[in-house]
Amino acid sequence: MAKSPAASAAYDVARVRADFPLLSRTVYGKKLIFLDSAASAQKPRAVIDAVARCYENEYANVHRGVYYLSQKATDAFEAVREKMRAFLNANETREIVFVRNGTEGMNLVAQSWGASHLKAGDEIVLSTFEHHSNIVPWQMLRDRLGVVIKVVPMDEAGNFLLGEYEKLLSPKTKLVAVTHCSNVLGTITPVREIVRLAHRAGAKVLVDGCQAAPRLAVDVRDLDCDFYVVTGHKMYGPSGTGAVYAKAEILEAMPPWQGGGGMIRRVTFEKTEYAEIPYRFEAGTPHIAGTIGLGAALDYVRGLGLEAIERHEAALLDYATRRLSEINSVRLVGTAAEKSAILSFNIGEVHPHDVGTVLDREGVAVRVGHHCAQPLMDRLGLVAAVRASFGVYNTMADVDRLHDAVLKVQRFFA
Ligand SMILES: *Cc1c(COP(=O)(O)O)cnc(C)c1O
Q1: Model-level pTM?
Q2: How far is CA 46 from CA 39, 238, 366, in A?
Q3: Could you give the residue numbers annotated as active site?
Q4: CATH of span 13-46+306-412
């Protein structure tokens, strides 16, 4: 039996855990082992406090009032745009558009950029890994405009096939929309190379960074992608927040997609002049307190350091892979060479929902199902799988608890 490796000296996971109030609770009288950060991460005290402080002390609508509180709220809100710019290493704050989640980010690009730049016969390249929110908006566009969708295959282990991808590119390719990290298999895709090849073919690239942003140091200038989408709730921030990065010259050439307050310069019944970027894409009152909380989450994650997080999660993945592999009936789903700390598996012929239920009774929270990636599951010939996903607060002891609970499932059903 493998022994728990000692915690890395540089990364004090006990202290990190202590920052997350919810993790000290129990379920069914047992210690909670939270292994579902890929669905939504828990929030550190700093984020919870920032949201509460906003409502208690600084709350007013943004970009509207001339009075003191509204100015304060606007300053705090806009400061988060700068934090997000720095987090992604974008050139300018006006390249950061706030949205309400990752799904809205993809829809913004599809409906604004896609609908104004694509025509019948143009091709969009997606990958097998995509989350439904990076598939369905493009299908809606296909049904409206007659664009063609092509899909990059993967191998059995869940590796992105660069050679196959290259074969799909042609002068007809106008957009490549790929995830940076698979939410089911954990596969990290070779985004830099994907972008380089797409640009050579004259296509733009959207990267779905919903899983990657909380796990890897992201540098949009280094990747040279045209769009990068993140969602706040998976980055230890509040739900209802997120951002789209897009190169300024691309945003400048995009029409608004939702109309209303906040995105205009001047409105008459005859004609409306739109606001400059990024405000042109932010109609209506945003999630003010949530976005301020997202700023606290970015500070928190940067404080831990993305390199330290990567190392910590790589150690967890390594240990969890070894420990689950010790169990005869466990079949891992996704063993790509480049992976983040997301581990999907099945236990013999036991239905994943039964696995999830037994694990839940042991206090172990995992996700079961198709994980919003049905085409990927179809490719693997699976209806469902169990997914354990790790975050900054998970420990080697959590992995041991997962192992023991899985062993219990095997004894129970096999
Ligand atoms: C969660 C997720 C999304 C969707 O994000 P929401 O915030 O739930 O809208 C998109 N892509 C990937 C890879 C995800 O993991």
Answers
A1: 0.96
A2: 21, 11, 25
A3: 372
A4: 3.90.1150.10
